[in-house]
Amino acid sequence: MASRGTIGILTGGGDVPGLNPAIRAITVRALREGFQVVGIRRGWAGLVDLIPEPGLEQTHNFLELTDEIVSRAARTGGTFLHTSRTRLSHLPRILVPDHV
Question: Which of 5, 57, 70, 100 fits a disulfide with 27 by CB distance 3.0 to 4.6 angstroms?
Fold first, then answer.
């Protein structure tokens, strides 16, 4: 089956309990509906630091989420994707890449 599209999930701000079960719920439903799901590591910093170049290893910035990954992570607190305090509204425009 062809993917209906891609959904990106990131967590920003402070780390709080319940993020992993929320990530799991979104991922499981999206996968069931035919979407690909990508977890953005380190919140907005993961997107800001991303270099959109084909073939470039980017696993430090994103991770394709599967049912197995999110089911394992849902049993732990916080967010397995990690977070950052990066706020796009506080970055100088010159530091915000075009893909964001």
Answer: 70
Tens digits of residue pLDDT in 13-48: 777 788 899 999 999 999 999 999 999 998 888 888
Give the alpha-carbon dihedral of 77, 65, 50, 42, to 10 degrees. 0
What range does the domain containing 86 cover?
6-58+77-95
Evaluate if pTM is beyond 0.85.
Answer: no
Q: Is 40 exposed, middle or buried (0-12, 13-18, 19+ CB in 10 A)?
A: buried
CATH number where 81 lies: 3.40.50.450
Gap between the Cα atoms of 27 and 63, Å rounded: 12
